[in-house]
């Protein structure tokens, strides 16, 4: 049995349960909806579509507390240009980011049936990862006015479903299987317009989840009706909102809109047959997607152990790190980021490095007991992980203020510290080699400036009487405490 040590925060969670209703004629539901939107001929008439819109993004996993509001990431404007005949699209993004850093991100994405290309703000092109392309293809299909028209052309793709819940409503629904994914479409009982287009997604934290595009603000466009507000929600938590400000159909597309360098195109990948959709989409929303089919580290790279001291290893090489500390009779691991794939690597590496020793404690630096209890109880049937396949109990220990893990070989002190990033945050001090594990508040990747986060770490180090230490990052590498005194200085 592992012991999992977490900061203490009082939490409450609510649950919404779907209540199925009698199934209705699936083909009729789709046919009625196509007619309500203007009919198959009108929906298929647009050879080109140009959309100018605004976007907002949020990330629930970055909230200050698990019961708090999702973290607002920023506002964006975008222009989407689509050649409906070749199913090629370009989206030009201008993103005014507020979190995780205040910055401006400008880039373009070109997607075609067989490739995807990223264009930076200087015009340089590079191929998309196959999982990024798969995620874009699925989301384009979800939002396409032609989704239901294509379903009528392939009636075997439509399956009947019982009524589905969205909020406090129960709506008639069908399942539509496409090459990009399987969509559950919920229809408004009065207007027959599609109200929600849903996928069932595997999420590392929330388990099997509803990912919904909720359609509203329908307006006439070229003889059809089109939703002008698209709210994307994960289990009812909004993560993206698109507002269409202008929709132009059958306008000429500017020359070179879809121009792709031949050398880049030759290296481009086709879409993955499956993808960790929630990881890809929400890291894109966050502006921190690695764009690698390896998910955890760059193409051509890999995770590795860097020895910081005898019996202390830093797991690096990816976007997120862990720390492994071997005690006399077991192993302590700090943080288990991202998902099962990286965790499996860390477990195997720890056991190979320290044969015969089991992992006894996992120290999680963010959030608290109720959050992890709910996470462990979440269903993972869509993509069963090791815990879902072989459930095992975990003893969760709260770190209310401080806690020590020690034997005759090593002492590790844990501190739950006040900070601006998360309501409940542990830093860990491996006393002998004087190493301090810090996630997010300090991420050594170059010069470290002073901020509320770094001052919080400095206050904690002063309170604990720690000096001359090496800061070991949950992201990045390491930094000497003595060399970043200005960043750690008190207010």
Which outline best applies? Answer: elongated
Distance between the termini: 43 Å
Q: What integer value in Å does the Rg equal?
A: 25 Å
Total of DSSP H or I helical runs spanning 4+ residues: 11
Low-pLDDT ranges: 9-23
- The strand count comes to 28
Helix % is 10-25%
Structural class by helix and strand composition: alpha+beta
Sheet with most strands: 13 strands, antiparallel
Strand content: 35-45%
The overall average pLDDT, rounded, is: 93
Spatial arrangement of strands, main beta sheet:
7-6-5-4-3-2-16-15-14-13-12-11-8
Short key terms for the protein model shown above:
about 500 residues; alpha+beta; seven-stranded mixed sheet; about 20% helix; about 40% strand; elongated
How would the blueprint of this fold be written?
Blueprint: E1 3-7, H1 26-36, H2 40-43, E2 48-59, E3 71-83, E4 88-97, E5 103-112, E6 115-120, E7 125-127, H3 130-143, H4 147-153, E8 158-160, E9 164-166, E10 169-171, E11 173-178, E12 181-187, E13 194-203, E14 207-221, E15 224-234, E16 237-249, H5 262-267, H6 277-286, E17 304-309, E18 312-316, E19 322-326, E20 331-334, H7 340-353, E21 359-363, H8 369-377, H9 386-389, E22 395-399, E23 402-406, E24 411-416, E25 426-430, E26 435-438, H10 452-464, E27 470-473, E28 478-480, H11 485-488
Parallel strand pairs: 1-21, 1-22, 20-21, 26-27
Antiparallel strand pairs: 2-3, 2-16, 3-4, 4-5, 5-6, 6-7, 8-11, 9-10, 11-12, 12-13, 13-14, 14-15, 15-16, 17-18, 18-19, 19-20, 23-24, 24-25, 25-26, 27-28
Helix pairs in contact: 1-4
